[in-house]
Amino acid sequence: MNRFWAAGSSDDSSSDSDGSSSYSSSDDSGVKGGAPKRWMEFSDDSDSEEEVRVVKSAKERALDAFTAHIKNLRSFTKQRDFKKIQSEFDVLSKAMIKDKKILAAGIPKELVRILVDLEDFIAERLADKEAFKKLTPNQGRALNRMKLTLKKHNKPYQVVMAHYRKNPSKANDIESDSDKSSSSSSSNSDKSDSDSSSSSSSSSDSDSDSDSSSSSS
Questions:
Q1: Residues with Cβ within 8 Å of residue 118, at least 6 apart in sequence
Q2: Residue 31 has what DSSP assignment?
């Protein structure tokens, strides 16, 4: 599966037909100082456990930091602690500015997802007027500030966020061809074993009938 996503597809149908998770763009240089128009997956690759010391690249360190911030934001979102969400997002946004050269090559899909989820979550919480009235002053101010912060921060990423909203399943739920092949092979193997067992059982029954007939005569 292609690990990079680019906004502004010129051939969506081709991408859908072959299960690929990428599409081309005529301009992936980004906007406003390098804000990218595509995203990528966090790396799944892990170094050998036998390695005593692993020297990580600047990109790997940046991705690790993004992962930690996203994990915290997910936790604070579940707690509905808007003050902590605000503080954590401020740190994340500064990290994104610091590593804008890395992000210019493609935004990690988990980063795109958290931007989309936070935008939806904050809008949903603000729409619940009764719940908003029950918030403490600090929590209420933090919630209002998050709305403004996200609006300003997410503006350069609207293209890639819009594409994610249209195709969330492509980023998360694509079954690889190897998985499909493995599943199919397993199914065929089970069927073959079942047929073989049935054939053996039939043969045994036939032999039993033959012996009974011989004994009777």
A1: 73, 77, 85, 89, 146, 150
A2: B
pLDDT tens series, the chain, 217 aa: 444 454 444 444 444 444 433 333 444 444 445 556 666 665 555 555 555 567 889 899 999 999 999 999 999 999 999 999 999 999 999 999 999 999 998 889 999 999 999 999 999 999 999 999 999 999 999 999 999 999 999 999 999 999 999 988 664 433 333 334 444 444 454 555 555 555 555 555 555 554 444 444 4
* CA angle, residues 100, 104, 108, in degrees to nearest 5: 90
Separation between Cα atoms, residue 36 and residue 28, nearest integer Å: 6
CB count in 10 Å sphere of residue 131: 13
Report helix angle 109-127 to 137-154, nearest 10.
130
Rounded to 10 deg, the angle between the 109-127 and 158-166 helix axes is 90
Query: Do the beta carbons of residue 93 and residue 153 sit within 8 Å?
Result: yes
Which of these, 4, 34, 8, 36, lies nearest to 21 by C-alpha position? 4
φ, ψ for residue 35, nearest 5 deg:
-65, 120
Contact 70, 111 (CB under 8 A): yes
Cα–Cα dist 45/41, whole Å: 11
Give yes or no for a contact between 145 and 86, defined as CB atoms under 8 angstroms apart.
yes
What are the backbone dihedrals phi and psi of residue 38, each rounded to the nearest 5 degrees, phi first? Answer: -145, 165
